[in-house]
Amino acid sequence: MDLSSSQIRELAQLIELDIPEADLASVALRLSALLTEMAKIERELGVEMNKTEPIPPVYPHEPGD
């Protein structure tokens, strides 16, 4: 997946994140690479991905733990 600097700017604006203009190309490159690799993992694992909780469980700590 190839994201452009302008797409990164738009995505950042949606969550009110300020990314300096000088960093947009780097962020676009890194996010594109991450999304590409995530897509490969999903293709390899297929249905197995649906068997895993997307958020790891977090257990509250009892006093004295």
Outline type: flat
Assembly category: single chain
Give me the strand/helix succession.
Answer: HH
Query: Whole-Å distance between the termini?
Result: 45 Å
Stretches where pLDDT falls below 50 for ≥5 residues? none
What would you report as the Rg, rounded to the nearest angstrom? 17 Å
Largest sheet: none
Mean pLDDT: 88
The fraction of residues assigned to DSSP E strands is: under 5%
The counted number of beta strands is 0
Structural class, by secondary structure, is mainly alpha
Summed up:
With 65 residues, the chain is mainly α. The protein has two helices and no strands. It has a domain at 5-44.
Structure description:
By secondary structure, the chain is mainly α. It has a domain at 5-44. The protein is 49% helix and 0% strand. It is built from two helices and no strands. It has helices spanning 5-14, 24-45. The longest helix has 22 residues, at 24-45. It is flat, with a radius of gyration of 17 Å.
Helix-strand blueprint:
Layout: H1 5-14, H2 24-45
Q: What descriptive keywords fit this protein?
A:
mainly alpha, 2 helices, 49% helix
